[in-house]
Amino acid sequence: MTETAITSRDNPIFKRLKKLGESARARRDAHMTLLDGEHLLEAYLDAGGTPRTVVRAASLAADRLAAHARRCPQAKWLVLPDALFAELAPVATPTGLLAEVAWLAPSPFAGTPLVIVLEDIQDPGNLGAMLRTGAAAGATLAVLSKGCHDPWSPKALRGGQGAQFVLPVQAGVDLQAWLAGFDGQCVALALGERSRDFYTLDLRGPLVLVAGNEGAGLSAAICRAAGTCAHIPMAGRIESLNASAALAVAVFEAVRQRRTR
């Protein structure tokens, strides 16, 4: 592969990449983002994506990336001094490899709908983990409220470990209107007087599972829009699970019920 060396933060390509790493608006306007690390680059390539630019820190051996270079020959390859790469890296522990890529729009999955709906999930790591859980369970769609963190931010992508490349995601959605239009069962994962035991529900038909903010949980309006509230029974002396764990338990219970024996 042929690399171009960048040694100045005044370089226009450096400025463009830095803005993508830092600004949700820049990512939305360009429908582009930055991936951190070889694993995410491989997942992006496996999903059919073609990187625009690949950036290597000087301390990362070029020959280690030969296989990646063969898979994306059209990409522009850059090498940066480690100090400059650290300024560009959008995560606390950079791997030495970044890729500028276009957002992917995965095709909707066929079969009985299994949708995860997320309200105001603001921590990028949690959001990525929840999308990863949905993708692993075979969810057909993820629907995110306007208050959710950007699912295409570098930190959310790291948390998702490739989920955003295979799970269709709708972001910035009016959840009340969306839930009102869904033809199937909507279950809000929430405590309350009328909250049902989650394990008593029949989850085999078209299904939406709604999870809420890490601290505040689901809003009353969204619980009403869902129609059914349910909780996961816990034998231990803890009041509740965090949002990511609760969603994982719930979505894989739906998977268990849908399995044919």
Automatic annotation (TrEMBL):
Where does the source fall among the domains of life?
Bacteria
Q: Which UniProt keywords apply?
A: Methyltransferase, Transferase
> Residue ranges of the tRNA/rRNA methyltransferase SpoU type domain?
114-251
Domain MRM3-like substrate binding: start-end pairs:
11-99
Q: According to the UniProt entry, where is the signal peptide?
A: none
Query: Entry's PANTHER family?
Result: RRNA METHYLTRANSFERASE 3, RRNA METHYLTRANSFERASE 3, MITOCHONDRIAL
UniProt-recorded name of the protein? RNA methyltransferase
